[in-house]
């Protein structure tokens, strides 16, 4: 039977709010639980922060090598490095030929960055010059945020991931992080995550069961990969 209110209108129970909302509470005094944290934050901001950023955002520019097509049409002349922090840009010659003197505007534009890395920069040199210090700061207990930004085909994926032969900043960062905790890892395999913030310790029998499940899953993944590899080969040679 549908529940009713006193005025005869039907209502459905709500799982979000109570049926009879409680009267709105007045202002709550929190003076007894307020704490002045300014001294603690001042220690963090003006203390022994040894990072190269010193609290400021660092913006680094990496110039990728020009493609053969870009070299053919003279695009390599549009970027020139003044020094380690400044570059000068000008339109390519094939673009200038289409512009009149009135529409061309200023031909040269200068931009300043925290650090500029030229096309000859290696993956290792770029990591040493941009990521190594922030990673060390993170290991020392400071928050750091690093991201890559650029247009399509600017080289973000290569800089971030790299190749198997010459890895990028992400694999080098992970390598540095894991090397920093060598000798501090728990090598036993008897702990299992439980929900979000806890873990359980497994018995010997449970460890054997978990190992069997893991091995079975890995075999299944390998079989699926081999199956799809065979199907892919058959589709190619048809």
UniProtKB/TrEMBL annotation:
It holds the Pfam family Kinesin. GO terms for cellular component: mitotic spindle; nucleus; spindle microtubule. PROSITE patterns: KINESIN_MOTOR_2. GO terms for biological process: microtubule-based movement; mitotic spindle assembly; spindle elongation. InterPro entries: KIF11-like, Kinesin_motor_dom, Kinesin_motor_dom_sf, P-loop_NTPase. SUPFAM superfamilies: P-loop containing nucleoside triphosphate hydrolases (SSF52540). ATP binds at residues 150-157. It is found in: Cytoplasm, Cytoskeleton, Spindle. Gene3D superfamilies: Kinesin motor domain. Residues 56-238 form the Kinesin motor domain. GO terms for molecular function: ATP binding; microtubule binding; plus-end-directed microtubule motor activity. The keyword Transcription regulation does not apply. This is Kinesin motor domain-containing protein. It comes from Zosterops lateralis melanops.
